[in-house]
Structure formats: structure tokens, C-alpha cells
Amino acid sequence: MHRPALSSLHGSDPEIARLVEAEARRQFEKVRLIASENYVSPAVLEATGSVLTNKYSEGYPGRRYYEGQQNVDLVETLAVERARRLFGVEHANVQPYSGSPANLAVYLAFLNPGDTVLGMSLPMGGHLTHGWPVSATGRWFHAVRYGVRAGDGRIDLDEVRDLARKERPRLIWCGGTAVPRTIDFAAFAEIAREVGAVLAADIAHIAGLVAGGAHPSPVGHADVISTTTHKTLRGPRGAMVMSTAEHAAAIDKAVFPGLQGGPHDHTTAAIAVALHEAAAPEFAGYAHRVVANARALAGALLDRGFDLVSGGTDNHLILIDLTGKGVPGRPAAQALDRAGIELNHNTVPFDPRTPFDPSGLRIGTAAITTRGLAPADMPRIAAWLDRALAAHRDEAVLAAVAAEIREFLAGHPMPGWSPTP
Ligand SMILES: *Cc1c(COP(=O)(O)O)cnc(C)c1O
To answer: Which annotated residues bind (6S)-5,6,7,8-tetrahydrofolate (predicted)?
Structure first.
């Protein structure tokens, strides 16, 4: 049952209520290794489901286009102040609907159509919005892309510097969606400074680690920092753009009225709650446990002969190259899902296969760490993964693994939901 129970929903729309409960149970019973996902706290769930969803608040605190902002102004001001304090930034905009619109706002603040942007290539670990051709950012801007070295799977900073000198981008992105190693923000800043580019650090994946001191901060290096709030930061679906005071007006103008209408005030409240939680001393412990779990899981996978891009991890994320295992990423991910292990197929750098059926798997430890799993549990996760993969066509083995996982996870409470009322 949800805490509180979904009693109104069961009464008015039992069909959706049943599906929500089924999803809660699914999240309870599976080892959730999708690197961008987490479990939010009951407090974040409550704020997200609050009456703030009824309000319209175009504008910013004290400068709104609608009346009745007595409470919403205070909510947004708290969210902004908490973001500034937690990350140590001069300015924060908490209104972007999600990570992709937050990144679009960065373009709108600094670039004109056709300007040059330098970002990490999607199949190398970058995000769509860093200038990939199918994204508006790759269509409306002149996008140049860097990658990782073939030898060690690390970002090739020599390539970044050479491309920056040759292409003179207005904007350089660092950070990505499948980067298992520490981002060297200082090195990117030096390159950006040399060519007069704006440096944007996209910390969508690692924001919780940065907040908890388990990954270096881009503050003091990047001109702009964009992030989602729902990945390692463990807040609601949403995003923020942070910057120095110098760029505050440009960022705010780009988010509203440049790109969006009314902010989602219920999300803003939930972001404020998540930032409050992330400022508590326990959260630093959480962030460090996420990394310790990823290191332990990577070690256990290496022991079992898995090939990891860059040979391991510094953060919450592990990229497995399945080429040597003889199973492509897509059927592997589907079989593992049936075995109670939820993850996503992913390209690996220099992938000879297609993005729809690539050679790799991406996993992360943010969600299982929230469930209370510890480094000592990681060999068991690796063993289940290995066993299910080896038997990926054997439904009996997959079902047996899923049953063992269900039993194991029953001892690890899930925030916001419990199988017994
Ligand atoms: C997740 C992610 C985004 C986009 O977030 P959405 O909320 O899915 O739009 C942007 N950049 C990076 C690096 C991400 O990992």
C-alpha cells in the first residue's frame, strides 16, 4: 500500500489506481539498476501530490503575472535559497520542467541559431541535448562532438582542446549520461577560457554525488551548471540551472519567458524538500555509499569476467561491454528484466552495433543504495546478473533468479510504499 493509501484514486479511477499499485510493487520487487532512477522520500511524494499543482505562477517571486502568490513565492524562494546553499552557487533557477528544457534554456541564454557548440557525442556518453543530430540542439546549432579514447575509455581532453581551438565554439558542454569516471571540470574550464567559450557543466546524473561531496563540484569552474533533480539527487522530476551572478538575468529570461510558461509549483515544492534532505548530514553518507556500492559492484563484475568501459567506475555508474559475452545489449536487458534485474541497454564507445540494439548495458547504484543495499551485497547482485545472462534463453532460470531477488528485497523497505497495509 502507498503511504498514505490511494483511497480517492481507488474510488474514482480503479483502473489507474491498480496500475499505480502494480508499478509500486514492481519497484519493490526488482533490483533497480537504471542509472538515472531512484526512490524519492515520502515527503517528496507528498509535496509532488499537493494542491500546489492547482496554481499558475508565470514569472519569478515578487514579479508574477498572476495574483495569489502569497505561498508560492515563499516556496520558490526557499527552493532557490536551498539550491544556492547546497551547491554554493550565486544563482539558481528551479523552474525548468526537466533536464532537456533546462539545457535548451542554456542555449537560448548564450547562443543564436547556427552558433557552434562543442559537446560529448551521444554514443560516447553525452546527452542528446549536447548537440546530437536528432535533437533540436544538433539541428539548430553547428554541433561539434568529442569522445573518449579507444584505449582507456576516458574523455580525450586533447581532442576537446584541439576541437575547441579549431571550431571556436560559443558553448562547451561537459558531463553526460554514460560517463563512469570523474569529470575534470578544471581542465574543461581552462579550454573554455582559452577559446572564449561559455562552459556548461551538465551534472544531471551526478548532482547528488556533488551535493554529498562524493564527486568534485563544477562550481568555480563552469559558468553555468544544469541538472535534473530526480537522479542521484533523489528529488521529483524536474531540473535547475545554476550560475554565477553575472549570468543570472540571461538564464532567468531564457527559462521564462524564453522557453516556458508557468512553473510547476508542486514540483518546485518537492525540489525544495529534496534539497532540504540533501543538505542533511545523512545525505553525504548516502552519496558516498552510492559510490562505494558502484565500486564494489564493478569489482564483483570484473571478478566474473565482465568487460567494463574504462575498467571500472568513480561514480554511481557502470558501463558493461557485452561483446565478449556473446549477447547483445537489448536481448540481455530484456532477459535480465524478466530475472528481476532492471537496467538499460546502452551503446559503448566505438560501438559497431546500432543504438537500438547496442553492445552494452548501463547500470547505476543510486536506487539500490536508497533501498539500503551495501557493498557486501554487491557480489550477490553480480552473481544474479551473471547467472541470468548466461541463461538468458532459459525462462526457468530467469524466474528462479527473480524469485530469489524478490525474497532478498522483501527485507529492504522502499520509501513511500509497503507490500503490507
Ligand atoms: C537525464 C539527463 C538529461 C535530461 O533530463 P530529462 O529530464 O530526461 O530531460 C540531460 N542531461 C544529462 C546529462 C542527463 O543525464
So the answer is: 122, 126-128, 246, 354-356
Give me the catalytic one of 228, 229, 268, 370. Answer: 228
Q: Domain holding 356: CATH number?
A: 3.90.1150.10
* 364 shares its domain with 219: no
Considering only CA atoms, which of 171, 219, 168, 166 is closest in space to residue 198?
171
- Dist. CA 225 → ligand 1 center (Å): 13
> Are residues 132 and 233 located together in one domain of the fold?
yes
Q: Is 55 a catalytic residue?
A: no
For residue 5, the model assigns a pLDDT of: 82
Question: pLDDT at position 1, please?
Answer: 55
- Model confidence at 355, pLDDT cuts 50, 70, 90, reads confident
**What pLDDT does residue 172 have?**
98
Residue numbers of the domain that contains 369 = 289-409
Query: Are residues 64 and 205 part of one domain?
Result: yes
Q: For 59-183, where are the E strands, in sequence order? A: 59-60, 63-64, 91-93, 116-120, 142-146, 171-174
Active-site residue (options: 21, 46, 56, 64):
56
For position 217, what pLDDT does the model report? 98
For ligand 1, atom 4, name the residue with the nearest CA.
99
Average confidence (pLDDT) over 146-150: 96
Closest CA to 329 of 298, 306, 355, 368: 355
List, for residues 46-68, the tens digit of each pLDDT value. 999 999 999 999 999 999 999 99
Q: Are 152 and 181 in contact (CB under 8 A)?
A: no
Amino acid letter, residue 91: H
- Indicate if 210 and 320 belong to the same structural domain: no
